[in-house]
From TrEMBL:
Pfam families associated with the record: LUD_dom (PF02589)
Domain LUD: 8-192
Organism: Tepidimicrobium xylanilyticum
Organismal lineage: Bacteria, Bacillati, Bacillota, Tissierellia, Tissierellales
Family matches, as InterPro entries: LUD_dom
Top-rank lineage group of the source organism: Bacteria
The protein's name: Uncharacterized ACR, YkgG family COG1556
Length: 201
């Protein structure tokens, strides 16, 4: 496994997070099934990583109670149920070699659920999310994650067309909330799964 993955793992553990490394997304998927019982409700945060892994369908097919606004007709209801679920699964925009999680969100539902209101949180990240430090993480978010999400959502923001952040004032702006989780919070059970594959934006 790459040295930067091992370095990120050590720093995240030093900051109080529970960290597991996996060679493939299939291994990470099985670990999730082993860690989450079928009687525990699960909320999903918006994430191309989860989408690419097919996790929502996998959990649903196995009889889990799962909520994801990406897969619901009534998005408002799905968001509410996801917020009140026992387990929350999402990804992160970036994680740094000094053990921080850096995220920018449009509405804040995903980033707030990463550290509040759930018994356990699982954050799934491919190796492509690992950044040197905070500045590198913000660069990645503004010029990779945000433009790609803007293109996926077909919102009317400059980054959709230029491929880089313009710090816009568009009504469709998707970068409204920035959250840095420096350390695992008291009473918060954040589990980070790092996969040695490129996943998501």
């Amino acid at each position: 496994m790459e040295e930067r993955i091992l370095s990120a793992e050590k720093s995240l553990k030093d900051n109080g997070f529970d960290v597991s490394l996996f060679k493939t997304k299939e291994e990470a998927r099985e670990a999730l099934f082993d860690s989450i019982s079928v009687d525990e409700s699960i909320g999903f945060g918006g994430s191309m990583t989860l989408f690419e892994m097919g996790l929502f369908e996998d959990f649903k097919e196995r009889g889990y109670e799962v909520y994801w606004h990406w897969k619901a007709e009534d998005k408002k209801e799905a968001l509410s149920k996801a917020f009140n679920s026992k387990i929350y699964i999402t990804s992160t925009n970036a994680l740094t070699l000094d053990g921080k999680l850096v995220n920018i969100d449009g509405s804040g539902n995903r980033v707030s659920s990463m550290f509040y209101g759930h018994e356990r949180v699982y954050i799934i990240a491919g190796r492509n999310k690992i950044c040197k430090d905070y500045n590198d993480a913000i660069e990645r978010i503004k010029n990779i994650a945000a433009p790609k999400n803007a293109q996926r959502l077909k919102v009317n923001t400059p980054c959709r067309f230029t491929g880089k952040c313009n710090d816009c004032n568009s009504p469709d702006r998707i970068c409204n909330v920035e959250v840095i989780i420096h350390k695992n919070l008291p009473g918060c059970n954040i589990n980070i799964y790092i996969i040695d594959e490129d996943l998501g934006y």
